[in-house]
């Protein structure tokens, strides 16, 4: 599902990308997959940036960094 969101983002189909990434984030949360959730949160930030929602994009980046810090993903925290 994460890759599907990325595909829609690359095609410029941002609403669909946001929908797929939001669904993937929900699934990651239900499964307790914090690593996957941090990836999806980063992807959502990119989609929000593309549509000009810079405040939303910043919120996503902050969430991504917090998740990466929580799970000890130093590379992800610094990269995203």
Mean pLDDT: 91
Shape: globular
Decide which structural class fits the backbone: mainly alpha
CATH topology: the name is Serine Threonine Protein Phosphatase 5, Tetratricopeptide repeat
* CATH architectural label: Alpha Horseshoe
Fraction of residues in helix? over 70%
The fourth-level CATH homologous superfamily is: Tetratricopeptide repeat domain
Task: Please indicate the count of domains.
Answer: 1
Question: Are there runs of 5+ residues with pLDDT below 50, and where?
Answer: none
Number-wise, the strands total: 0
Main β-sheet: number of strands, strand sense, barrel status? none
Radius of gyration over C-alpha positions, nearest whole angstrom: 12 Å
SSE series = HHHHH
Give the C-level CATH assignment: Mainly Alpha
Task: Count every helix, treating DSSP H or I runs of 4 or more residues as helices.
Answer: 5
Strand content: under 5%
**How widely separated are the two ends?**
20 Å
């Amino acid at each position: 599902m994460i890759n599907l969101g990325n595909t829609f983002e690359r095609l410029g189909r941002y609403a669909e990308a946001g929908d797929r990434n939001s669904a993937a984030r929900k699934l990651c949360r239900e499964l307790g997959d914090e690593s996957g959730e941090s990836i999806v949160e980063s992807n959502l930030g990119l989609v929000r940036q593309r549509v000009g929602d810079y405040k939303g994009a910043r919120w996503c980046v902050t969430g991504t960094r917090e998740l990466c810090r929580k799970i000890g993903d130093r590379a992800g925290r610094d990269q995203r």
